[in-house]
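Long-time lurker. I teach an intro course on protein structure, and each term I like to show students one example going from raw sequence to a predicted 3D structure in token notation. This year I'd like something fresh instead of my usual example. Would anyone be willing to generate the tokens for the chain below so I can use it in lecture? Attribution to the forum is fine with me.
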Amino acid sequence: MNAKQGIFDARQNNLDFLRLSLAILVILSHSFPLATGSEANEPFILATHGQTTGGTIAVDLFFVLSGFLITNSFLSSSSVWSYLGKRIRRIYPGFVATMLVGALVVAPLASASSPFHTAAAQLGNFVLSCLRLREFDYLHAFASNPAPGAINGSLWSISYEFWCYIGVAVLGLIGILARRRVVLGIFCLSLVVSLLFAITGWAPGGSFLNPIFGFPPLWARLLPMYLAGVVFFLHRDRIPLYGYLALGALGALVVAAYIPLAWTVCFPVAGTYLLFWFGYHPGIRLTNFAKYGDFSYGTYLYAFPIQQLTMKFFGHPISPYLLSVIAVPLTLMAAILSWHLIEKRFVGSSAKVRRSEDISQSSPKLASVAAGR
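-- Reply from a regular --
Happy to contribute to a lecture. Here you go:
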């Protein structure tokens, strides 16, 4: 690929394919602990010698993609309120619908009980949880399953992503987003912090801050991934997409899989490069993958409860691969319904969404970023 093809084309890319593929990878990875009660034999755990799982890789790359696309969304928005409005419409409707399904359908089927004794307290917990983008409180769900206790173990990441949306807005409002070297420096610092957390195993608590902002070790893992996407967007005019660099990035990940803690530092850089090399490779033409809708968010939202219900009613023991075969088409059907009945009514058609967030070189805000150093 020549240097000119390093410019990222918003209309000719494979990002929709990648998003759905990553959501399906979460299903495949979760099938191991949900079917067997352990992720010890999960393929990515084995391949990386215990450093990561396929589900972790998928979520991390979701954050990379989000950092890239949300930075563009902020810089191409007419105001911070317009930007936040788009983000709220994209995240909240689908999330609230999932929570309603979880409370009214999945929880009774899971024989889950509420820790609250009054209807008012239960409703208050549900509303507050929706606002915080956290799962509502419950007890004893899927008690007989290999992985008991969880109705929707995937929802934890949504609040972290929304805080990242707010973080991008803050960086933009105080002018840091227009200073590419400063953002690069923050990214490098986040890698150091992430490595320190991994080395020390430090897990600071906080009964007040954790429920609001999240668990610090998770931030230590996710923030470098999100910032990697931000940095990649801000430097996209300087980053060539060469096959030999992609091969080098893949080689670096193979080596990192054999070195304890190396994955923590290597993946935010090498994984990000591979993601966008594939996403914008002109020889890989999957540009119309979301022609009938963006089903990735719904796939992520509904997979876990569908897998848990499958385990409850199908019986166990069951092969993780069979669980995946059953769960993937059921989840895709739920995701299609989620898109057409809920999500697209708030964000419009997928074509309209892409037009509103095109990576354009003509925006004055983008021009100012391109000039920033």
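Some talking points for your students: Residues 3-371 form one domain. The chain has a mean pLDDT of 90.
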